Amino acid sequence: MLANGIAYNRFDVSGLPPQQQLLAYWEQLGHIIEVVPSREQVRQSFICINNRYDIGEFRISDTYTDHVVIERTVARISRDNVRGIGFTIFLDGAAHLATTLARKREYPVCGGSVLATDFEQPIRLQRQACRYITLVVPANLLRHVFSDPWAIHGRALEPSRPATRLIVERARTLVENLRYMPFEDAHRRLAGLIELIADAFGEEAGLSGSKRAVGRALMFEYTRRYVRANLHGYELSPDSVVESLGLSRSTIYRLFEHEGGLGAFIRHLRLRAAADELVRFPNVPIKDVGYSVGFKSASDFTRAFRRAYEMTPQEMRLNDYRYPHAEWR
């Protein structure tokens, strides 16, 4: 605890033997994510310096690490209670790559970019050696812009945007001065930074910044509510949504372009619901779990689940996942 009342923790692996440094980093983050190393990486030295500050309901960290692949899997998500929205502000580095697993979409990011992740959805991040700031906030703080915070997952702010440059500069200044600020001042500045980030992502998604964006935001909220309310029905499809809500196909496409289309969004919601039920109800047959979330056959469910999460429903239930892209585990 700092003298100003801010909870502070520093984590540095430099005092450990080289072969223990990456594993120590893994253990530090193990309650949230998996680290996916190669055999060679484990044998080598690894740099990780993390300064974490807890300020009321907010958490902000200033970190430097070597190159690493990290992943938050659906198996972990369905077994823990870690929730919220994370913003990674890359201060340097190049050619980072984020992959949202269920949507099979890749998002290249570089120094000066801001990446948003929803802890309730799986993601894989190949991060080059860099310094970055991580900000974790409750999802409800974004609902004035994103009525469904799931929609922010995987979005990124480009470094060429003036708002992004302002966010990066304010975040850098904040973490470098937190230990000298009064608690109330630090909390106020952090809340202001979050507001700035939310507005920037809202504009990037076309949900704020103009009268037209307000109308789009209303359609965005209405459509997602309808899909969630009818998720378990076999008849739910892009065609049924278009017909029931009276929206044009072009409007639907624009609303769900980030998700890969409305069909992909429906499938993603069904698979996430199924993953939770596989863990919550271990004695229910897998085929019945698939039927309960709207899949029409057991084979369709298993095939879609494996394609999205790189594991079968049975492996997910048994927590028996092996990383096919890792050399050592």
Write up what this structure looks like.
The protein is an alpha+beta fold and 329 residues long. The strands form 2 sheets. Strands 1-3-4-11-6-9-12 form a 7-stranded antiparallel sheet, sandwiched between helices. A 5-stranded antiparallel sheet has the order 2-5-10-7-8. Helices cover 42% and strands 20% of the residues. The chain is globular and about 55 Å long. Helix 9 packs across helix 10 and helix 10 packs across helix 11. A hairpin with a 4-residue loop joins strand 7 and strand 8. It has 2 domains: 198 residues, Jelly Rolls, CATH 2.60.120.10; 107 residues, Arc Repressor Mutant, subunit A, CATH 1.10.10.60. The C terminus is likely disordered.
Helices and strands, with pairings:
Layout: E1 7-12, H1 18-29, E2 34-35, H2 39-43, E3 48-55, E4 58-65, E5 68-72, H3 74-77, E6 85-90, E7 96-100, E8 105-109, E9 114-118, E10 123-127, E11 130-137, E12 156-157, H4 162-177, H5 183-204, H6 211-229, H7 238-245, H8 249-255, H9 262-280, H10 286-292, H11 298-309, H12 313-318
Side-by-side strand order of the widest sheet? 1-3-4-11-6-9-12
The end-to-end distance, rounded to whole angstroms, is: 36 Å
Shape: globular
Bin the helical content.
Answer: 40-55%
How many separate structural domains? 2
- What is the CATH C level class of the largest domain, in words? Mainly Beta
Structural category is alpha+beta
Number of helices: 12
Summed over residues and divided by their number, the pLDDT gives a mean of 88
CATH topology of the largest domain: Jelly Rolls
Largest sheet geometry: 7 strands, antiparallel
Work out the radius of gyration.
Answer: 21 Å
The CATH H-level homologous superfamily of the largest domain = Jelly Rolls
Report the strand count: 12
Ranges where pLDDT stays below 50 over 5 or more residues in a row are 320-329
Q: Estimate what percentage of residues fall within beta strands.
A: 15-25%
**How would you spell out the order of helices and strands?**
EHEHEEEHEEEEEEEHHHHHHHHH
CATH architecture of the largest domain: Sandwich
